[in-house]
């Protein structure tokens, strides 16, 4: 692999001049000398050390993303949207998958600090994440879930409690007299908001509704395993609202295995609004999060970060399809 010294030798100049050409300074280089350096670099297929160049300017042009499970389509769509937004600003997105493990999340945080990423977008698996390592390193963070107001991290999120209430209220509007909440792990991020929103919808119903909360990991497999148990019971609920689309897909699988027709025997509501939800069988009703807008604002906030944390709450939409009983057009 060619080095800067090789380019300098072929161009008949010094390695310092080669550096000035590729770093656009700090000293000026004549047009004639610049042309010689670029011609030599092209002939030798020379590629400057991007990391060294970036560090010389005090930044690495990289954004770190920490997610709980990159196999989850929601986080896959989020990563794609964040990468698009980062590339538009000339940055590279580095992805760390905590695999729903707190120790691994801590390892990724340390790795991002060691690699001197410029900023971080984080979806923690902890109710109260520890951002201290980033704070001490001077790395700005945007969390894509609610955080403590005294936190050093900014946040961009929808109102999970309000969205969960709207989803449950829609099921109530169908007249279902028993509704289950399939929530994430009891103390996981967002579980409390989903729980409170669900309870508020039931309280406003005006008629008695039998309820149950079931907790599972936010995966299709675990949700299906749990659903196969309680949906097989005689007192199974008439409808289920889920904390994620992934869990809703698990419920659809369990219903199929048990011979339950959706929505005739069991209505199902998801949460996240991934592109996959429209192609479930039947099509999944869900709460759609504005993933492109979340990504755009997250990268924008990180680029502008220069002071106190910023906390923004974005809107959401109910996508009403067949699984809740609405039909193809949400009617």
TrEMBL record:
Superkingdom, taxonomy of origin: Bacteria
PANTHER family: HTH-TYPE TRANSCRIPTIONAL REGULATOR GALS, LACI-RELATED TRANSCRIPTIONAL REPRESSOR
GO terms, molecular function: DNA-binding transcription factor activity; transcription cis-regulatory region binding
Domain HTH lacI-type: 2-57
A Pfam cross-reference name: LacI
Protein name as catalogued: LacI family transcriptional regulator
InterPro entries per the UniProt record, alphabetical: HTH_LacI, LacI/GalR-like_sensor, Lambda_DNA-bd_dom_sf, Peripla_BP_I
Lineage: Bacteria, Bacillati, Actinomycetota, Actinomycetes, Micrococcales
Alphabetical keyword list: DNA-binding, Transcription, Transcription regulation
Keyword Transcription regulation: yes
PROSITE patterns: HTH_LACI_2
């Amino acid at each position: 692999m060619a080095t800067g010294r090789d380019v300098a030798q072929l161009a008949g100049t010094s390695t310092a001049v080669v550096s000035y050409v590729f770093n656009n300074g700090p000293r000026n280089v004549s047009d004639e000398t610049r042309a010689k350096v670029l011609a030599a670099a092209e002939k030798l297929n020379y590629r400057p050390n991007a990391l060294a160049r970036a560090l010389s300017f005090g930044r690495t042009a990289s954004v770190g993303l920490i997610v709980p499970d990159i196999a989850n389509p929601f986080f896959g769509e989020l990563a794609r949207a964040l990468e698009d937004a980062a590339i538009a600003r000339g940055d590279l997105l580095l992805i760390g998958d905590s695999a729903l493990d707190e120790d691994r999340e801590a390892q990724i945080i340390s790795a991002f600090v060691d690699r001197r990423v410029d900023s971080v977008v984080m979806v923690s698996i902890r109710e109260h994440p520890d951002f201290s390592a980033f704070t001490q390193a001077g790395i700005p963070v945007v969390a894509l879930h609610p955080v403590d107001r005294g936190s050093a991290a900014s946040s961009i999120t929808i109102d999970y409690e309000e969205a969960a209430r709207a989803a449950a209220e829609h099921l109530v509007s169908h007249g279902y007299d028993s509704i289950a909440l399939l929530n994430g792990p009891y103390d996981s991020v967002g579980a409390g908001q989903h729980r409170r929103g669900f309870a508020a919808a039931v309280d406003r119903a005006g008629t008695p509704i039998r309820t149950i909360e079931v907790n599972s990991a936010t995966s299709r497999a675990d949700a299906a395993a749990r659903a196969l148990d309680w949906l097989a019971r005689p007192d199974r609920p008439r409808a289920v609202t889920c904390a994620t689309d992934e869990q809703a897909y698990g419920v659809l699988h369990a219903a199929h295995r048990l011979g339950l027709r959706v929505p005739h025997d069991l209505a199902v509501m998801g949460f996240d609004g991934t592109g996959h939800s429209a192609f479930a069988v039947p099509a999944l009703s869900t709460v759609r999060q504005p993933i492109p807008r979340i990504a755009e604002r997250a990268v924008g906030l990180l680029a502008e970060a220069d002071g106190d944390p910023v906390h923004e709450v974005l809107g959401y939409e109910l996508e009403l399809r067949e699984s809740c009983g609405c039909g193809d057009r949400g009617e």
